[in-house]
Design brief:
This protein is of the alpha/beta class. The chain has one domain: Uracil-DNA Glycosylase, subunit E. Helix content is 41%, strand content 13%. The protein contains eight helices and five strands, in the order H-H-E-H-H-E-H-E-H-H-E-E-H. Helix 1 runs antiparallel to helix 5. The mean pLDDT is 91. The structure holds iron/sulfur cluster (SF4). The site of iron/sulfur cluster has 14 residues, from helix 2 and helix 5.
């Protein structure tokens, strides 16, 4: 399947910052992480019984992964994407030429909502966070983007992709690289299906071709940007 070419800004690293700027961003991100770790907005609003925000990353991470919400397993493990979804995602990244340490060593890992939303009422997989929960957590993601200033964002699943790019079927987004902006910071979005085993999206041959095209685009960006 041919990849969709959309006019894009030339690959460029974020503008050079002074050591003082860098130190200020590091300190601001540490403050934000402390603030998010203490956040109980969704508990206060009655959406979840307990807040346990999960995220990981640092200033200098050039790739940001935005999922829809953490999985339950990550509550017992300190890092996001430590379970089955993480293994699948690492395998996809390996197909795009990334080394195995990239995901947890060089990528900023976050999601639309930072707390496990609970199991789905249908009994399969996790509940997708509601629009109201995404709205409650939006400010956290905006501040992460503004401080980390990623060049490339990997959006996992329809919810994350459309939150960053606007409403569209996932089939229109996977296999494309699109410019986006959050909190005044521009970046490129590469959409992928959700790596959860519950997702049936990759069962269709046409979607598997879109996924292959997305990984080929990701491999190109890895080389062009020396990620
Ligand atoms: S999901 Fe976000 S807004 Fe809701 S309690 Fe967790 S950190 Fe706070």
């Amino acid at each position: 399947m041919a990849t969709t070419r959309i006019p894009l800004p030339q690959p460029s690293r974020p503008p050079a910052t002074t050591p003082g700027d860098h130190a200020a961003r590091v300190a601001a991100l540490a403050r934000l992480h402390a603030e998010v770790s203490a956040c109980v907005r969704c508990v206060a609003a009655g959406f979840i019984p307990k807040a346990r925000p999960i995220f990981r990353g640092a200033i200098g991470n050039r790739v940001m992964v935005v999922g829809q919400a953490p999985a339950a397993l990550t509550h017992e493990q300190p890092a996001p994407y430590s379970g089955a979804s993480g293994r699948t995602l690492r395998a996809w990244l390996a197909r795009a030429g990334f080394d195995d340490g990239a995901l947890h060593g060089r990528f900023y890992l976050t999601s639309l909502t930072k707390c496990f939303p609970g199991p789905s009422t249908g009994g399969k997989g996790d509940r997708a966070p509601s629009a109201a929960e995404v709205a409650l957590c939006r400010g956290h993601l905006d501040r992460e983007v503004a401080l980390v200033q990623p060049e490339l964002v990997l959006a996992l699943g329809r919810l994350a992709a459309t939150a960053l790019l606007g409403p569209a079927p996932l089939a229109e987004l996977v296999g494309t690289l699109r410019p986006a902006e959050r909190a005044g910071h521009p970046f490129l979005v590469l959409s992928l299906p959700h790596p959860s085993g519950v997702s049936r999206w990759l069962n269709e041959a046409a979607n598997r071709a879109r996924h292959e095209a997305a990984l080929a685009l990701l491999a190109e960006e890895r080389v062009r940007r020396e990620l």
